[in-house]
């Protein structure tokens, strides 16, 4: 391939990545510095950048991870901590981020519009290639000892790895890497660093590492979104010139520093082996198991796609051979089974078995090996199902180009640029993988059997069995306590005082204020640079008629209103697929039936129909439907609705409507399928209960809602933990009663007045977009037609504490946590058109943005990993969330104090922060419509669920007109009450040892706090006056 030259950049041939050629990729390489840029032209309002460097480690020091953190502390040109995240909002970006993997480090940025992206890109590159790497930054951000003799605070590298090092997933992954990969490959190590190493690593080691890998020729700037080519090249040339100006870096431009070229050869595993590892956990009866095989080289693209297809055949659906054997059982071996592929120089393929009962852990791997051998020996490959699956997987691939194109480009581009040359055919083939499905469709049964045998039977495997250990938990706690006490003794009072002074000095240096001239020199671009996605809306005019348009005319011509007694909104977008969602209002379901909602959602796609076994139902469903789902609400809101969604090709629209009819009215609930669903949830709950954030959410929901009114609360794991054991007992002795309840639940749920339907896709291409729904009518005529009920909101299911926040503070004990988590809630706006919402959104950004007042306070003092505010208008609540806090009381008190200072004027808001916050809110608006499918979903949310009359341009104008007096007013009205005991509710999840101390501290602040056990929330109805269901 002969590139063309554009000034100082080579331009390689443009190529498409999708069969429709709607996404074109351009590649540029500097003739002077070797810098490479890759641009995928994707329609939408957002522009994303993935600034990637190939990095390699030979130990567990965590050098790439440390560098990832230190880069954000300033550069030679911008030597101030937080510059990037302070400038990001002025580019219509929420902030910057990064990740470290074993073979690369990637820095990310996403902006609304192209102007801000191009403006921020040179600043970002300056931070990456020319970071300050000061002694002070290293001391505060990597590892230090606090005045109590303990290691580090919350936001440093050390504490991040402290939270991970002894987790189940990390322990199992480290064991796997060490058994599978040779030392010289660079793969068996922990790129994040181990605590022992992090305590000893020095800044000079990090500087050497930066010199080795952070060079222009090793930097790949991968960009997705709409960008002007001239503007991009101009920016790249600006970056190139800045690099050339650093004369001391010219010498390192002579040779490539990519450590993965040539890609290392990974030898076959010599033999199969199984190793058991333990992770610290008490009172758990579940473990996890992984089984890993080595696959082909990274650029064997046909084989890679074949592996994806074979894994889907084996495990994806309820009728897949392995899922039927291990999951879809009344006494399952696990609750979830999936395959994951890691794309290194040579692929590794890992089967993950989650929530394995300990008494079955040692039986699972032999059973898996036997199952795979049996499939080969009996030639049990169903070619009809395989061909359907290949076609479906191709459609999913094409659908992903529409729904998540950014990562469809970025992730394969990263791998291909790590292990190959962006100028060669491997790079193009890596991004055109959809074409390989056209080859796989011609594979014979014998081809698949040979492939199965080569991949999983003739190849050795490494299995890791992860088991919980209470003894290990106690040992690690005792070992760490001994180490810290020894550390205190060795340092002594004089040593601790010295380290405290050193930390304060380093913190003072790091927190130097960013000069206003830097902010002033970074003007906020015009919103005109932000493109938008056009959605045309029509509806079946059940209670309202939209303005006339071509789509509405198309709908009106197709059948009479009286024939289709359902509300249907159609959102027209260019697409090869149709997404159909049915929103089912649960408001009219009686209290004693509401908890059956989870069982309904878990069985609706995996139950038999009249005279059709459930396996045949699933098989036929897979033939017609690309994807399907049943869940509560849309994007975390309106969760009193059960939403059934299917996606089909446009040509199968009629089949999709027919499937929804069968799913809502024809499925038959059976004892067998209900027991499988119940057992799966009961096995999932223990692991979910180890998540502190989830526990705060569940408990606050229990405080706010009347369980008798709320489907969301009654379907939560917290309530299901008390409900499902009784259901399971009843299913075993009297299944008819539960089946009768399920049928009654379904009968009420699927009444026509409870249905709201959303259709998105190329509506104009549908021949019968409305009249096809006539097939549903016979079900609607079984009862008298009723008007469409009002939209049900979370607030409609509130109990006393939800409607009247105040005087309720609960401390929940989580024995396995070392950190604390909290949610604090008060009343907020409940009208989506409230004139205060624009000001409130801007204020929240000013407070919780990466460089906002709350975040700098809490993160800077090491009090919590993160804190943020939420405005749930549907529930009429404002909430403050604090995540992974080392001292939850101090974090809350500091935030409270800062808020009072702002309210009284002792502390003033920054005018630059106001401008940046407005830009961040505008980004959030663009992000809500970042793809066609998401934009269509937002249309339904606004018009049908929120029933908002405010137009997008009106909201945009209102945000830009927010002033400082507006900010102060909404602070007084909505944020200050969060700290008033009489006007707020609080949930804190913490350890047993800290629970009483936290309760006492909140009591001293005026909050009537009480310590509770999680299982008592519903078992003893702590927040309810009486129970509402009795299965006895």
TrEMBL record:
Residues 58-142 form the Peptidase M16 N-terminal domain. It comes from the Eukaryota. InterPro entries: Metalloenz_LuxS/M16 (IPR011249), Pept_M16_N (IPR011765), Peptidase_M16_C (IPR007863). Pfam families: Peptidase_M16, Peptidase_M16_C. SUPFAM superfamilies: LuxS/MPP-like metallohydrolase (SSF63411). GO terms for molecular function: metal ion binding. Residues 202-329 form the Peptidase M16 C-terminal domain. This is Uncharacterized protein. It comes from Rhizopus stolonifer (Rhizopus nigricans).
